Amino acid sequence: MSRDNDAPVGVFDSGVGGLSVLGEIRSLLPSESLLYVADCGHIPYGEKTPEFIRQRCVIIAEFFRTRGAKALVLACNTATVAGVADLRERYPEWPIVGMEPAVKPAAAATRTGVVGVLATTGTLQSAKFAALLDRFATDIQVVTQPCPGLVELIETGDLTSPLIRQLLHSYVEPLLEAGCDTIILGCTHYPFLKPLLREMIPASITLIDTGGAVARQLQRLLGQRDMLASGPPQPTQFWTSGDPDNFRNILPVLLEASDSVRSFAS
Q: Fewer CB atoms inside 10 A, N or C side of the chain?
């Protein structure tokens, strides 16, 4: 087996949200070794300029390349919107997978023709999201709901407190009142709120996120290049540009405990 097949896959997000995508990649591709950077020192990306986010994307991509990563996953909708085109231009030979809100599968899933989207303000205002609506949502009604504050609470590991319940309920209620039978989780942080969401919405409502689709796209790209690993994988390595102790504390809540959390100083 070539060295490329054994090489790790780099995954990054502005914070801990991309851990939901990391979990999906692990489930589908258990032989792959994974590296993860949480750019918590610059969260939330949604309040930063596209140029700043592009700079962060390049810095983190270069870090992964020095670590020998064979592919890159942008496990962040905001980073994808701002930076994925630039990264693909810079590294045309490198398999790169981005995120996008799951408008197409939601349009296929809805029975009432009304789809809700929970997302960050930056994602909802992006040209890429508008293009997705133009392409896949011409025959359905899409009700968008920006969710300021949710990402910051999830970053603390707060998935069940009265505060996050109240905030999430205030965002979900307009979607229910509009008759949505399908809700898109348009941020990688939001899948961690599925148990809480399920308490708030009827069982008939479909929740859709894109972590599984990202894992399948990564599998396709690596397979096309004959770069799939056969394992066994190396333990996942984690870095954060925020406080490593904070990240180390939240990891068991969202994914697993790990001693491999280091400071990302760039």
A: N
Per-residue HEC secondary structure of 33-89 comes to CEEEEECHHHCCHHHCCHHHHHHHHHHHHHHHHHCCCCEEEECCHHHHHHHHHHHHH
Pairwise CA distance, residues 96 & 70, whole Å: 9
Over the stretch 197-216, which tens digit does the pLDDT of each residue have? 999 999 999 999 999 999 99
Domains and CATH numbers, the chain: 3-99+212-263 (3.40.50.1860), 103-209 (3.40.50.1860)
Cite the active site residues: 76, 187
Q: What's the full length of the chain, in residues?
A: 266
What is the tens place of the pLDDT at every residue in 67-105? 999 999 999 988 998 999 999 999 999 999 999 888 999
Give Cα 231 distance to the centre of its chain: 25
DSSP 153-199: HHHTT-SSSHHHHHHHHHHHHHHHHTT-SEEEE-STTGGGGHHHHHH
